[in-house]
């Protein structure tokens, strides 16, 4: 290990001390120069002061000589005057020389001094002359008036100013000299101390370096010992190759370490001789005798020689081979599985996948593994399989039962996913995904759905003809037959009804499993529904000689629940018919209601033999019957209880039973109690107005339609979904309903059939209104579309009484012989319908196909259209666009074997209206359809 050398401080200290000494010498020289300059300035100032005083003295001599001569007239005083003039001139020149050398006094000062002195000397000479010429008195007066004193004072001021300045400079120079000397002393002291400190620091650094060298020497010795111990401890064999390519061993020779230098020398020299090879250079060497394998690496030291290490990798190689075998085994296992399997890490990299998964991209697993999604061509098709993985890293499990994607061959695949986190350590977590391909199952379900739809049509269509014909014969609608034939007709009609129930049960159970059975939950009085169910099944109970009893609930008990009344009636019919069939003749079936904190419980008790213990676990299974030998005598398909359980669960309830063999069975179902809430009141309407519910998912189109209806005098309610429409129907009193051909939350056909299945809305005017979307280049704001009135949805096989009631209600207001178009591909049904409505004196025209129906609609008008949805050349709903173009459009009765359109098929009413009308025409059309309402409709509304 390399040791960082210590910094040598003592040379640095010596250099710094020398630099400080040089700085001290330079500072002393500067101080000396400053003192000399100050002394010279002082000398010049003293000379200037001396010259000033000499000038002042000369002026004083001139003044004294002048005054003495004026007073005494003694010529001896003029000697002083004359000498003063000479001295004044001499000292004036001397002062000028000083000024030229120093720049002060300035030339202006000399000009003022010379002019003032000249005036003063002139006055002095004048005084002397006057004294000589005019005597003492005149000279004295002249002396007093001449102003010599003022001039003399001005000269003194000029001289005093120069002297004061020079004396101030003397004072400042003395102070500067003292400060310079003091500063030099301080600098010298500090510098001396620093030099001394640096010398001591240098001595300390020298000593420290000596101590460090001794410590490094000891560490080197210890390091050498540790290195030697390390070389002897590691299991690898170390070699040194010097500049002469001589190989020597650095480890102690042991047979378990590695090969001898002479054995491995050829390999090392071969590695050393490799041209343009990067370091480290490595290779595998196998010892023939012991079959041991060594990994040999070669590295340069940077000093001209090389080091090599030989590591025994025999066991490691065995582990690698074993791991490769395990990986190959795992690969065969996952590739054998037909399910799609892949593992991804937290960074989205595919760590493992099988052949089935790679087939989605038409490639091999090795082309996907160790790559991220963005590195795979066409990987966007895998996105549905990768959803939710980031949330799984925290734990849990993710299951997706229905994931669709398109594979590399353009085929749609349906998969069921299971994702689980695979945590290898606290910081490493992968996600394992197993996808089961259910495409075949989906295709089979689709085939089953299509088969059931086809079978439903193919069975219900002839069954309608059979049931209708037998019903007409049995009820005496046509001329009755012989007395012996009447019981046979009743038997045939009874068994046709039984066959209808069987088909309905099969279709109901399939729709329940597929989630296509619609429910209209509303707040209902369960006690009234139970009473109605007992009343309806009373004839059936009499045929078995069984009495029905309703146990009245407690007067304070709440018996209201949110449920579908039609589905609840179906549940009660199944439970009551089952109890009646299993009760002995003369027995009794009782129904009780109990209200508790956990909900409402309804029980149906029979007096039958009870349910065998071995059958109780299968009682709610399809086609399950406890005693198959007795099934034909009692009737039934074994589907009733399975359908009942599904219906109860769909209404958020539960069902079960309590049974004792020989003492009867009590089936119970529990429903949640309805939460009490105040009923909403409809907003008051103006006199003469009608309320219309507009069901339209397009808010803008619904607003424009409402505005159009407001112009026609109607009050409107808006609903964007089928759920909102049901809430408004339960809350408000609605006289008519407009329905969009495409709802967002439910199939239109299913909603319409569910509406017609409720007695309260059996005759509610329903208008299918198709609104055209406005183009961007249209800015007129007009409402465009058309409307068709759908009177009812009659599933096959149809009740003749209901059919006659609907047709008769639609044509009541037509004084002339009305004309009806019946679109049906089955000729027997057309003939049967013609016989059924023959008493109504109606002209019925039949069409067996869409083409024939279109031809008839183009040739004449009709007051009513009865349309089957399944025709040989297309869907019956395709006629609706042509019906909507008639003026006025005839109402429509849907007469089809389909209970409701299948959810994964196209909407039957999706393309009803394709004509274009402006808002005024559409409003007039709706107004016309609403004005031609049936008396039955008004009667129903009055009862509501």
UniProtKB/TrEMBL annotation:
<dbReference type="GO" id="GO:0000155">
    <property type="term" value="F:phosphorelay sensor kinase activity"/>
</dbReference>
<dbReference type="InterPro" id="IPR004358">
    <property type="entry name" value="Sig_transdc_His_kin-like_C"/>
</dbReference>
<dbReference type="InterPro" id="IPR013656">
    <property type="entry name" value="PAS_4"/>
</dbReference>
<dbReference type="InterPro" id="IPR005467">
    <property type="entry name" value="His_kinase_dom"/>
</dbReference>
<keyword id="KW-0418">Kinase</keyword>
<feature type="modified residue" description="4-aspartylphosphate">
    <location>
        <position position="868"/>
    </location>
</feature>
<keyword id="KW-0472">Membrane</keyword>
<feature type="domain" description="Response regulatory">
    <location>
        <begin position="691"/>
        <end position="811"/>
    </location>
</feature>
<keyword id="KW-0902">Two-component regulatory system</keyword>
<dbReference type="InterPro" id="IPR003661">
    <property type="entry name" value="HisK_dim/P_dom"/>
</dbReference>
<dbReference type="Pfam" id="PF05227">
    <property type="entry name" value="CHASE3"/>
</dbReference>
<feature type="domain" description="PAS">
    <location>
        <begin position="326"/>
        <end position="368"/>
    </location>
</feature>
<dbReference type="InterPro" id="IPR001789">
    <property type="entry name" value="Sig_transdc_resp-reg_receiver"/>
</dbReference>
<dbReference type="InterPro" id="IPR050736">
    <property type="entry name" value="Sensor_HK_Regulatory"/>
</dbReference>
<keyword id="KW-0597">Phosphoprotein</keyword>
<dbReference type="InterPro" id="IPR007891">
    <property type="entry name" value="CHASE3"/>
</dbReference>
<dbReference type="InterPro" id="IPR000014">
    <property type="entry name" value="PAS"/>
</dbReference>
<dbReference type="InterPro" id="IPR011006">
    <property type="entry name" value="CheY-like_superfamily"/>
</dbReference>
<feature type="domain" description="Response regulatory">
    <location>
        <begin position="819"/>
        <end position="929"/>
    </location>
</feature>
<keyword id="KW-0175">Coiled coil</keyword>
<dbReference type="InterPro" id="IPR036097">
    <property type="entry name" value="HisK_dim/P_sf"/>
</dbReference>
<dbReference type="InterPro" id="IPR035965">
    <property type="entry name" value="PAS-like_dom_sf"/>
</dbReference>
<dbReference type="GO" id="GO:0005886">
    <property type="term" value="C:plasma membrane"/>
</dbReference>
<dbReference type="Pfam" id="PF00512">
    <property type="entry name" value="HisKA"/>
</dbReference>
<feature type="domain" description="Histidine kinase">
    <location>
        <begin position="454"/>
        <end position="675"/>
    </location>
</feature>
<dbReference type="InterPro" id="IPR036890">
    <property type="entry name" value="HATPase_C_sf"/>
</dbReference>
<keyword id="KW-0808">Transferase</keyword>
<keyword id="KW-1133">Transmembrane helix</keyword>
<feature type="coiled-coil region">
    <location>
        <begin position="306"/>
        <end position="333"/>
    </location>
</feature>
<dbReference type="Pfam" id="PF02518">
    <property type="entry name" value="HATPase_c"/>
</dbReference>
<protein>
    <recommendedName>
        <fullName>histidine kinase</fullName>
        <ecNumber>2.7.13.3</ecNumber>
    </recommendedName>
</protein>
<dbReference type="InterPro" id="IPR003594">
    <property type="entry name" value="HATPase_dom"/>
</dbReference>
<feature type="transmembrane region" description="Helical">
    <location>
        <begin position="6"/>
        <end position="26"/>
    </location>
</feature>
<keyword id="KW-0812">Transmembrane</keyword>
<dbReference type="Pfam" id="PF08448">
    <property type="entry name" value="PAS_4"/>
</dbReference>
<dbReference type="Pfam" id="PF00072">
    <property type="entry name" value="Response_reg"/>
</dbReference>
<feature type="transmembrane region" description="Helical">
    <location>
        <begin position="187"/>
        <end position="206"/>
    </location>
</feature>
């Amino acid at each position: 290990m390399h040791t960082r050398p210590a910094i040598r401080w003592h040379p640095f200290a010596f250099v710094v001390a020398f630099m400080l000494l040089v700085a001290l010498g330079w500072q002393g020289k500067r101080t000396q120069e400053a003192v000399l300059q100050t002394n010279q300035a002082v000398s010049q100032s003293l000379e200037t002061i001396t010259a000033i005083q000499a000038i002042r003295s000369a002026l004083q001599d001139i003044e004294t000589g002048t005054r003495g001569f004026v007073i005494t007239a003694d010529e001896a005083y003029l000697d002083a005057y004359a000498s003063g003039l000479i001295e004044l001139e001499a000292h004036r020149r001397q002062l000028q020389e000083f000024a030229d050398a120093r720049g002060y006094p300035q030339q202006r000062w000399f000009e003022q001094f010379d002019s003032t002195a000249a005036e003063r000397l002139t006055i002095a000479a004048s005084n002397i002359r006057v004294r000589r010429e005019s005597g003492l008195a005149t000279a004295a007066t002249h002396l007093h008036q001449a102003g010599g004193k003022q001039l003399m004072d001005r000269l003194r001021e000029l001289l005093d100013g120069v002297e004061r300045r020079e004396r101030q400079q003397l004072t400042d120079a003395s102070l500067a000299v003292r400060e310079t000397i003091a500063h030099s002393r301080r600098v010298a002291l500090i510098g001396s101390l620093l030099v001394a400190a640096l010398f001591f620091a240098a001595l300390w650094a020298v000593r420290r370096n000596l101590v460090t060298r001794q410590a490094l020497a000891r560490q080197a010795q210890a390091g050498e010992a540790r290195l030697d111990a390390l070389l002897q401890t590691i299991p690898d064999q170390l070699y040194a190759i010097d500049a002469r390519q001589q190989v020597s061993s650095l480890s102690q020779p042991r047979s378990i370490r590695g090969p001898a230098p002479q054995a491995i020398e050829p390999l090392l020299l071969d590695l050393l001789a490799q041209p343009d090879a990067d370091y480290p250079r490595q290779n595998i060497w196998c010892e023939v005798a012991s079959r041991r394998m060594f990994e040999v690496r070669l590295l340069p030291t940077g000093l001209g020689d090389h080091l090599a290490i030989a590591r025994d990798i025999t066991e490691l190689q065995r582990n690698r081979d074993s791991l490769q075998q395990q990986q190959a085994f795992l690969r065969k296992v996952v590739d054998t599985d037909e399910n799609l399997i892949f593992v991804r890490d937290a960074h989205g990299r595919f760590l493992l996948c099988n052949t089935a998964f790679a087939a989605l991209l038409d490639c091999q697993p090795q082309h996907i593994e160790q790559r991220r999604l963005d590195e795979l061509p066409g990987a966007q098709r895998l996105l549905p399989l990768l959803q939710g993985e980031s949330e799984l890293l925290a734990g849990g499990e993710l299951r997706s039962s229905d994931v669709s994607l398109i594979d590399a061959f353009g085929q749609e695949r349906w998969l069921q996913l299971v994702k689980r986190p695979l945590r290898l350590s606290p910081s490493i977590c992968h996600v394992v995904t197993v996808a089961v391909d259910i495409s075949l199952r989906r295709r089979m379900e689709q085939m089953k759905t299509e088969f059931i739809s086809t079978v439903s049509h193919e069975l219900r269509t002839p069954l309608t003809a059979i049931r209708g014909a037998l019903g007409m014969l049995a009820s005496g609608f046509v001329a009755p037959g012989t007395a012996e034939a009447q019981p046979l007709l009743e038997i045939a009609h009874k068994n046709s009804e039984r066959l209808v129930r069987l088909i309905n049960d099969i279709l109901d159970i399939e729709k329940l499993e597929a989630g296509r059975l619609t429910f209209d939950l509303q707040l209902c009085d369960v006690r009234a529904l139970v009473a109605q169910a007992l009343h309806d099944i009373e004839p059936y109970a009499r045929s078995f000689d069984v009495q029905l009893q309703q146990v009245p609930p407690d007067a304070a008990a709440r018996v209201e629940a949110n449920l579908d009344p039609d589905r609840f009636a179906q549940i009660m019919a199944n439970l009551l018919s089952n109890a009646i069939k299993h009760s002995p003749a003369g027995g009794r079936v009782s129904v009780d209601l109990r209200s508790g904190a956990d909900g409402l419980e309804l029980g149906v008790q029979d007096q039958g033999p009870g349910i065998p213990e071995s059958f109780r676990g299968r009682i709610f299974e399809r086609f399950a019957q406890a005693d198959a030998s007795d099934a034909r005598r009692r009737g039934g398909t074994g589907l009733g209880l399975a359908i009942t359980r599904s219906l109860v669960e769909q209404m958020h309830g539960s069902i079960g039973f309590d049974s004792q063999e020989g003492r009867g069975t009590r089936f119970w179902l529990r429903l949640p109690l309805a939460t009490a809430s105040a009923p909403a009141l409809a907003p008051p309407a103006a006199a003469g107005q009608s309320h219309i519910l507009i069901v339209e998912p397009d808010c803008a189109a619904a607003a424009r339609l409402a505005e159009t209806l407001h112009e026609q005098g109607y009050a409107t309610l808006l609903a964007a979904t089928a759920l909102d429409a049901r809430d408004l129907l339960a809350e408000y009193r609605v006289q008519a309903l407009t329905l969009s051909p495409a709802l967002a939350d439910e199939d239109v056909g299913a909603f319409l059939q569910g509406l017609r299945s409720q007695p309260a809305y059996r005759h509610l005017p329903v208008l299918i209104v198709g609104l055209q979307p406005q183009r961007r280049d249209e800015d007129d704001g007009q409402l465009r579309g058309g409307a068709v009135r759908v009177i009812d949805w009659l599933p096959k096989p149809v009740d003749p009484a209901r059919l006659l009631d609907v047709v008769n209600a639609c044509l009541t207001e037509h004084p002339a012989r009305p004309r009806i178009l019946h679109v049906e591909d089955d000729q027997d049904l057309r003939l049967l319908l013609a016989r059924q409505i023959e008493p109504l004196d109606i002209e019925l025209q039949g069409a067996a196909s869409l083409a024939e129906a279109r031809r008839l609609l183009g040739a004449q008008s009709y007051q009513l259209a009865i349309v089957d949805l399944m025709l040989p050349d297309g869907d019956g709903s395709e006629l609706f666009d042509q019906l909507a173009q008639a003026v006025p459009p005839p109402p429509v009765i849907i007469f089809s074997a389909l209970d409701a359109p299948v959810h994964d098929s196209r909407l039957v009413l999706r393309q009803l209206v394709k004509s274009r009308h402006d808002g005024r025409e559409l409003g007039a059309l709706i107004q016309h359809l609403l004005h031609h309402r049936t008396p039955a409709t008004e009667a129903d509304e009055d009862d509501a």
